[in-house]
Amino acid sequence: MDTSNVIAIGCDHGAYLLKDKVKEHLDALGFRYIDFGTNGPESVHYPIYAHAVCQAIQKGEAQLGILLCSSGIGMSMAANKHHGIRAALCGDTYSARFTRMHNDANVLCLGALTTGAGLAIDILDAFLSHEFEGGRHQTRVDMVMALEESENNK
Question: Has this prediction a pTM greater than 0.90?
Answer without folding.
Answer: yes
